[in-house]
Amino acid sequence: MMAAKDDRYAALRRHPLGGVSLFLGGAEIVCRPSGALWLEAHGALVVADLHLEKGSSYAARGQMLPPFDTRETLRRLEAEVWVLAPRLVIFLGDSFHDAAARGRLAADDEARLIALALGRTLVWLAGNHDAQAPRALPGESARSLRVSGLDLVHEPAPGPVAAEAAGHLHPCAKVRGRGASVRRRCFVTDGRRIVLPAFGAFAGGLNVRDAAFAALFHRPPLAAVLGEGAVHPVRWSRLGAD
């Protein structure tokens, strides 16, 4: 896992509760196997791009998908809350797939979202799919948030940044191996910016070799690839295009 000539690798360490930790802008962050980001010093759990009710959105347009994406996404989020007991849960935008998704939310799923706020604060950042914070759900709304010098936003800012965590792009990595390759959701970082994978069950992903990522990093980034219960740092040279 380590590479002596790359300080991003040298700073990585396995976290006792799972995932790998590194420093970004002076803040220690933990990339979780679930795709969530954990800011332990602040008790803050950060998730991006849940796209709740994406399945029902597609169904309304005649493209039938299994209607269980919201249930599965909330199950995974509840599991993170159970393990980490955060004081703060931050949603980096596109929490709902469209403006009408809140109205399609099943009553039991709504109750689960409300229960997440018991004993903690929820912060909903605006995204391009959900420009307004969800009404009748607990929590605060914001366009962006700063935690310990780390700027939390939905869409990566253009140009260089000092320390930013963003969503929006749903990064995935295609890792080349001996005679085969595997494609997985991932975090991607150059030590100044980190882009989180989509947390939603139906959210999909964009290959980090896509041109949309090209201008975001001041040096070839590394991918923190999600595996079964683990996060695997992978060098840029091992990542292939789709």
Structure report:
This protein has 242 residues and is α/β, with parallel strands linked by helices. It has one domain (7-240): Purple Acid Phosphatase, chain A, domain 2 (4-Layer Sandwich), CATH 3.60.21. It has 5 helices and 18 strands. It has helices at residues 7-10, 54-60, 69-84, 101-104, 107-116; strands at 13-14, 20-24, 27-31, 37-39, 44-47, 88-91, 121-125, 140-142, 145-147, 150-152, 164-166, 171-176, 181-189, 193-195, 206-207, 222-226, 231-234, 239-240. The strands form 2 sheets. Strands 9, 10, 11, 12, 13, 14, 15, 16, 17 and 18 form a 10-stranded mixed β-sheet that branches. Strands 1-2-3-4-5-6-7-8 form an 8-stranded mixed β-sheet. Strand 13 and strand 14 form a beta hairpin. Helix 3 (69-84) runs parallel beside helix 5 (107-116). The longest helix is centred in the first third of the chain and has 16 residues, at 69-84. The protein is globular and about 45 Å long. It starts with 6 loop residues before the first helix and ends with a strand. The mean pLDDT is 88.
Quaternary structure state of the chains depicted: single chain
What does the average pLDDT come to?
A: 88
Tell me about the biggest sheet? 10 strands, mixed
Structural class: alpha/beta
Helix content: 10-25%
Q: How many extended strands?
A: 18
Secondary-structure element series: HEEEEEHHEHHEEEEEEEEEEEE
